Amino acid sequence: MLNERQRKVLFCVVNEYIKNRKPVSSSRVLENTNILHSSATIRNDLKKLEYLGYVHHVHTSSGRIPSDKGYRFYVESIMDIMKNMDVSKNMESFPEYPQLNVDQIITRTAALLSRALPVATVITKPRMDTLKIRAIRLHKTSEDYITVVLLTETGMIDAQTFLERVAEESLVNIERFLNSTLVGRSINEIKERLNDPESQRPWKGTSVESMFDILRGIIEESSLETYVIRGLENLISDDLIDQESLRKLVRIMETSRSFYKFLGEYGNVDKQSIFIGSEHPQKAMNPFVSFLMPYKVSNEIVGHILVISSKAIDYQRVMTLTKYIGNRLTELFTFLSRLGNMKK
Asked: In the CATH hierarchy, which top-level class contains the domain 129-222?
């Protein structure tokens, strides 16, 4: 159990190490706190903190640096402080984006975080498989080409143009039929229907069958899980991250399969969570700290923001920005969902 002075000493050690990235001595603690005790008392406190696993020596004669346990104490202290703060003040402006361009929203948001913070940012795009179709639009762009547009409940849009000769009147009727048949269903439900030969038997050899084939291709492509990565260069330039650990992380991010396996190992994260070093479920993440924040449509999680950095980071700023961005994405996608329902 730590007394109040030892808690102040520990908070100071972590805070000073984050700012200067150098081992913290007893004299440094006295310089940066209002503790009215001798250097010998502080040295004894540091010895106790080391014995309890909150700090450790790099060299025998050097000051202390925080352990994962010490960082955890610091994060919990920061959280207590933030409870009584208005974190919306002095916040970077969240840019406005065209409502239907989700790729642009996700990409620019990831870039925003990685410019504002010395971190790598990964943002997963909303899971298309659980979203419901709000509308299907068919446009005749020329005599031989039509453009098929899918709009989901979050305002997400997918549009592709195909070589297909269909009369204008038939196109209107097909669009009306598709909307009456498929709107309100999730991508997964539509995939099942499009892959069921019996449900499509009545349309064999007609323009509706060819339209089903086109929709099947669009939905199969749209339902692939995707994500955006920005800021890896921030980790490359961080002296506290060894190159081998960085190479392992980059290899994980290289493919969708390895990344989503990696992301799944964090477990069911339904609120902002922080994993420090050995707290990670992945051994390769021991040199890092991860900030994981979900964003939602209404109360359903549709994606995550993952921020990765070295452990010596401004925790308050990262927590504040990441939570703010997550909440804004939730507000935006929930608004689009409601707007989509109103337009049905």
From this structure: alpha beta
